[in-house]
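Supplementary Methods. Inverse-folding protocol.

Structures were first reduced to a discrete structure-token string of length 357. This string, shown here, constituted the complete conditioning input.
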């Protein structure tokens, strides 16, 4: 699916902020990225952790004070699985309303989404696009375990349940955000892809990863949304570049050279009109955040874009297929540094758009 709007170097954020108030999160988002705002995740609340936020509705889910897991040993588990598939089919075949199903997210785990949509309703003018996100199926499947500590991704049935759960949570979210008339974008956050090919993920195949992406991205496209995949570390970038994803979101500050180890795939990706979400603003290291300026990061983007120019694009054309983002979310940073990351993202975007837009 070719993107239906011009990225044009606009600023975009990655999910999390270090706050305890969703309303304040909405205010920060609209202060710095009003053209393409997103709903924020606040990891200060344990219910908004990457796994916890999307696990409700999973059959056999058991939540204790210490951990969450899928209890396949419970006598009711087989019936729970059957009920899950019945619910999935009913919603998929439009015999049941997704808004009143296990696939709808609640305020207890997605307060940021509800605060965001309430603010959107108050706006006199719609944004260019709106962004939502889910934890990607690989990261979710490797992060959620059964009662024995085995990741659900390694069980064929549980992996299928996880994928279908995320698939319909993505559909529900896209439907909710599409009501506002802006282009909807859904990101799959996949930090676990950094381990693909290592001994820790030796039994995870390329085909399994591709199948997971294919299902959820296909659902997003069916609902008229664009789909992006975000990885905040190094990865086998061909997994994303060769997928149906419309947007590749990556840490350009630290790993641009690693992305360019896949020149043929990057060239095809750009030639097809897809978008690079260029994580040029550092988030990992406090010293980097304190040291960098908008001017230094603009110069960094200009130097990196030379490699894309070699594919036959000038800087103006590259910027047209570029979003300027932080390298990752800022939920683990002190608020002053997180705010600086947001400000730098805005300033780098403004400078590049003025220069090459």
């Amino acid at each position: 699916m070719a993107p239906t709007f011009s990225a044009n170097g606009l600023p975009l954020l990655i999910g999390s902020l270090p706050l305890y108030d969703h309303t304040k999160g909405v205010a920060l988002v609209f202060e710095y990225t009003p053209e393409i705002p997103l709903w924020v995740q606040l990891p200060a609340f344990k219910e908004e952790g990457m796994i916890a936020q999307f696990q409700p509705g999973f059959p056999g889910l058991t939540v204790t004070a210490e951990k969450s897991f899928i209890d396949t040993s419970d006598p009711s588990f087989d019936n729970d699985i059957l009920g899950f598939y019945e619910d999935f089919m009913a919603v998929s075949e439009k015999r049941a309303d997704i808004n009143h199903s296990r696939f709808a997210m609640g305020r207890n785990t997605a307060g940021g989404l509800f605060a965001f949509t309430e603010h959107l309703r108050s706006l006199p003018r719609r944004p260019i696009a709106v962004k939502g996100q889910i934890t990607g199926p690989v990261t979710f499947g490797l992060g959620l375990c059964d009662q024995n500590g085995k990741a659900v991704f390694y069980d064929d049935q549980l992996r299928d349940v996880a994928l279908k759960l995320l698939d319909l949570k993505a559909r529900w979210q896209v439907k909710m955000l599409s009501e506002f008339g802006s282009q909807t974008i859904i990101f799959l956050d996949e930090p676990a892809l950094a381990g693909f090919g290592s001994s820790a993920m030796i039994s995870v195949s390329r085909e399994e990863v591709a199948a997971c992406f294919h299902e959820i991205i296909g659902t997003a496209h069916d609902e008229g949304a664009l789909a992006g995949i975000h990885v905040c570390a190094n990865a086998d970038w061909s997994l994303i570049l060769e997928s149906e994803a419309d947007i590749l979101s990556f840490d350009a500050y630290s790993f641009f050279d690693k992305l360019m180890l896949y020149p043929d795939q990057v060239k095809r990706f750009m030639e097809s009109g897809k978008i690079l979400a260029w994580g040029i603003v550092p988030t990992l290291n406090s010293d980097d955040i304190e040291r960098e300026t908008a001017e230094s990061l603009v110069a960094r983007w200009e130097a990196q874009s030379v490699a894309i120019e070699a594919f036959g694009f000038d800087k103006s054309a590259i910027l047209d297929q570029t979003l300027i983002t932080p390298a990752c979310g800022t939920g683990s940073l002190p608020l002053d540094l997180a705010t600086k990351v947001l400000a730098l993202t805005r300033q780098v975007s403004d400078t590049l758009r003025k220069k090459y837009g």
